[in-house]
Specification:
This protein is mainly alpha-helical and 83 residues long. The protein has one domain. It has helices spanning 4-15, 21-33, 35-54, 61-77. The longest helix has 20 residues, at 35-54. The model has no long low-confidence stretch (mean pLDDT 86).
């Protein structure tokens, strides 16, 4: 099984779809068991999504706002509700 350090080193390649089938399986197995790494990869995906939304030069401001709102909604879905 991969170590947390190896997962961190391969996380960008994973979210960019650059890993082979065996490497992807190893990553998924680790992420299924390690909530810290799963959270890290999720945050990395969110960062990538926000950067892509911000750099969409040909997108209208409304489309960028909608993308950012969708990403923020995903983030809020993962937070525990205070009551």
């Amino acid at each position: 099984m991969l170590s947390c350090k190896e997962v961190a080193q391969r996380a960008s390649a994973m979210i960019d779809g650059e890993l082979g089938a065996w490497q992807m399986l190893q990553m998924r197995m680790h992420l299924a068991m390690c909530k810290g790494c799963a959270r890290f990869v999720s945050q990395l995906r969110t960062t990538r999504d926000l950067a892509e939304a911000a750099m969409a030069a040909d997108a209208s401001q409304e489309a960028v706002d909608a993308s950012v709102s969708a990403i923020l909604s995903r983030l809020n879905d993962g937070k525990p509700q205070s009551g």
